[in-house]
Every structure is written in C-alpha cells, then in structure tokens.
Amino acid sequence: SGLSREPRSRAVEQVHLRCTQGFLEWMYPARALRVLLEPNLAGARHTTLCIKPASDFQGASIYVERAGQLHLVVSEAEGARPHHVSCFSAQTPQRVALFLQASPQRDISRRTASFQYELLSAAGPDFKEMALVEATCRPCDNVELLMAICSSDFVVKGSIRNVSHDSESHVSQVDVSVQKVYRQKNRIFQQDEASGEWRGPIQTLLQCKVKRGAGDFLFTGNEHFGEAWLGCAPRFKDFMFIYQAARARGANPCEF
C-alpha cells in the first residue's frame, strides 16, 4: 500500500517476485513501484511476459524496463478494458523489471492498481496464439494427443452444451457438460448445486470456427489467467482407440 510509505519519501519501493505467475495489488498508489520478476527459468532461452490488468485497474501505469529505457505496457486508461492482455518478449529469461508509476491525484480516495502476470518460456509475443499453441485450430495427431493427456492443465470428458462467439475479442467460448474430470489445475469445472451437473467454460480462438457437435469428447488444454484454453479435443471413442493401441505397443507416455 502507498499509505505505508513516508509521506516525503521519494525512494522507489522494490518488490522481488520469484513465481512464474501471480497477482500483484497496489492500493493507494503513490510515487513509484519497481517489480522485479526473477523466476527460476534457467533453461529458458526466451521468455514472454503477459499482463492482464484487473477490470477496476486505476491509479497507475505499467512500464517495462529495456536497456535502461521505460516502455509503456498498460496505461491507466487501458486498465479497465475487459479481457485485455498485453504480452511482450523479455530481454533476459531470468529477470524482468516492471515499473509502476502512480498517477497524480488531489485526494486520498482509494485506487487500486492490480494485475495478473504469467511468465512463459519460449512462447510467442501474442497471448491468444500462445494460449492455443497446443491445437492451433487443427486436429491433433496421435503423438500430440497422447502427450496432451500427460501435460495439460485440464483433462475432462464431456459434451458441448453451447458455443458462443465474441467477435470483438475474437474469442469463442465452449460451454461443456462434464461427465468426468480426470485432472484440472484450478476449479474451472465445478458442480452445479441445484442440478448436480458438472460444467465449465473453455475458451478458443474465433478463427478456429468451433461448432456444437453431438457425442462425447475428451477436452484437454492449459489455463491462462484463470481461464481454460482449448488444446486437443478428440471424440472420446476415437481417443480410446488411439490410447489402447499405443498402450498395447508400450508407446503411451503416461497412464490414463
């Protein structure tokens, strides 16, 4: 909180974060805050940093430091845009510096500059492309599919309840009726208290032209900023045929 600072201090507060993803909340922003992201990504040659401001982001602007220069990433005016994610390549994988500059204000009314961040090794500069790197709007081959059940953040069996499209954000949402949750990183797929049915939303790119289809699917993918992004999604019976054949050869990379 900016209220914890000495009123006349001009020193820039420094915060060191070791996590590859997290959430920072700066209440009553005053003067400046320097945030050093220093995760253990020693093996990464390239790092992409993505920032998603909170919907009520206000009171500051976010810059990234590059070669001693500050480059604007999120302005206070942009902070309130829903689902807006800014991504950029970091110059060094082991250390990224952000600079938060408080906006001038006349009173002490509460403002909060908060955002989520994710550091990704060897990812592209575009968040939506990065989120769908597993599938890229095409069917996964057998090897990709067998790896997806081992490495995805979520693996669920279910059917498609509905598909909605948002042309402004270029995102489609697949609402899934879930029969079984094999794995999920966070509680995106939850049980409805009234009906007892398990449900959950999965995001994908509008350009993938996802349509509602009958039958059961195996949905896999990764989570970004608390949302599930679609990876491989074969029909369940097709997946089981591929998996059982691979298991008979001893070629399955993990047990399902």
TrEMBL record:
Alphabetic keyword roster: Disulfide bond, Secreted, Signal
Main subcellular location: secreted
Location(s), subcellular: Secreted
UniProt-listed InterPro entries: Meteorin-like, TIMP-like_OB-fold
Keyword Signal applies: yes
Similarity field: Belongs to the meteorin family.
Designated name of the protein: Meteorin-like
